[in-house]
Amino acid sequence: MGDIKQPRLNDGYDGPLQPHLNGGYDGPLQPHLNGGYDGPQPPHLNGGYDGPQQPHLNRGYDGPPQPHLNRGYYGPPQPHLNGGYYGPPIPPPPPKPKRRYKTPGCCCFSCIGSCIGSCLRCCGCCILSLIWNILIAVAVILGITALILWLIFRPNAVKFYVADANLNRFSLDSSNNSNLHYDLDLNFTIRNPNQRLGIYYDVVQVSGYYGDQRFGSVEIAPFYQGHKNTTVVVTKMEGQNLVVLGDGARADLKEDDLTGVYRIDVRLVMSVRFKFWIIKSWKVKPKIRCDDLKIPLGSSNSTSGFKFQTMQCNFDFR
After folding, report:
1. Are residues 197 and 242 in the same domain?
2. How does it sit in the bilayer (predicted)?
3. Is residue 29 in a domain?
4. pLDDT band at 45, cuts 50/70/90?
5. Per-residue pLDDT for 78 more than 70?
6. Exposure pattern of 138-164 as b/e (b: 16+ CB <10 Å)?
7. Alpha-carbon dihedral sign for residues 234, 239, 242, 246
8. 84: alpha, beta or left, given left = phi > 0 and alpha = psi -120 to 50?
9. Which residues contact 28 (CB under 8 A, 6 or more apart)?
């Protein structure tokens, strides 16, 4: 019993070291001892460790990079790392294109705050476009209206006839070969064949021509002609007038003096309006031509019983 040391002794002991002893121990180191240990490093120690790196250690690590480390990293870049990156450059993302919105409607509304000249040019284009559209719309409306009226009324041309003509005098003055004396009676027949249209004859002027030279005229009092109606108009032209006749016209006049039948032209110029129920149209100015009327001289004995033949006149709106 004299060679065995008691556990309570701390020095002069060569047996197995007791766990509670901290000095003079050369056996395997206990985990709770921090000094004089050369064995494998426990995982919870941070200094003096050359084994495989633990994920929670940040110092003295040369193994494969861990994703959560931000310093000392040379591998492929991670998207969430901001510093310590030496890989190929990453271009910045392209900027998003700016969308331009055009103001609807007329560009005049976009002129506020811009140059006055540009605003005037813009508004001028809008005004011209508006006027053009209005003209097109008016033309289309008028065309459709005219077509509807034509389909409803089915207008027929008014017919003019010279029903009778009598020449009482037609001769040049013996003292003045340019002064023509005339006395002409004309009876016109005007036929309105339309069933729904009445006609207002506001102005009617009858003129007589010989050799393309007007020798006299007379106006007829205004009148109204109802639908499906025939009106007889009696006129008389009488007087004298200076008429400059060419050589051809003088030769024709001498020939007519011999036969007692004179070739006279009659023209009517008028202003008329059409009426449908209570609707009245605007004024139109047709021209009526009654050419080459062969009118006998009433006092002549050389006519051999020639009588005037009823002749239809030409109706023209031009």
Report:
1. yes
2. Single-pass membrane protein
3. no
4. very low
5. no
6. eeeeeeeeeeeeeeeeeeeebebbbeb
7. positive
8. left
9. 39
Q: Are residues 208 and 249 in the same domain?
A: yes
Beta-carbon contacts of residue 37 (< 8 Å; ≥ 6 apart): 29
% of the chain residues with pLDDT over 70: 59
The identity of residue 61, as a single letter, is Y
Burial 255-293 (b: 16+ CB within 10 A, else e): ebbebbbbbbbbbbebebebbbeeeeeeeeebebebeeb
pTM of the model: 0.54
* CB 199 within 8 Å of CB 303: no
Task: Please enumerate in sequence order all residues whose Cβ is within 8 A of that of 182, keeping only pairs 6 or more positions apart, or say none.
Answer: 167, 169, 170, 208, 215, 216, 237, 238, 239, 240, 241
Burial call 72-91: b when 16+ CB within 10 Å, e when fewer: ebeeeeeeeeeeebeeeeee
The answer to whether residues 184 and 295 touch, using CB atoms and an 8 Å cutoff, is yes
Answer with the one of 133, 154, 175 that is the final residue of a domain. Answer: 154
The number of distinct structural domains making up the chain is: 2
Residue span of the structural domain in which 221 resides? 159-316
